[in-house]
Fold this protein.
Amino acid sequence: MKFGLPFELGMLASSIFASNTTTVSPSIYILGTSPPATAALSKALDTLGYSRLDLESDILDQTALSNTYVEVTSNMQLAEITRSQPDAKFILPRSNRRIGEEDYVLSARNFFSKEKRSRKYLELDVLAAKKSSQADNWVQLCDFLGMGYSVVERLDLWHFPK
């Protein structure tokens, strides 16, 4: 049976990170923008060994959220999560193609502008067309998640999912 490249990369990433049980990744929250941008970031996180939780899951249960990600759709959720989970990280997948998205981006930037919060926030143009931007997205994402550049090289991550 032949599997596709995303499946193989996901399995490889899972096995790489499953062997390192001494560190537990903090929860990751996607600040929902456009469906295509959110889907691209979800595929990237899947490739890196993260699992998606649905909104119906208890997003405030810290033990259930190791190596997982959840889409956050409201500022009330955002405020509660940052209060209850100080180690949580937030990623805003920008698409630069959606009208009205800029207000949401500015709102997120304002919320995370405080010094302690700014290190827990990353913006990525996940639908960038340039190959160099796609590779930069992988480098920034892996660095933000504490995985480093070696993961990008080991998994040959140069084209960001669409």
Remarks:
- The chain has a mean pLDDT of 76.
- The first helix runs from residue 5 to 18.
- The chain has seven helices and five strands.
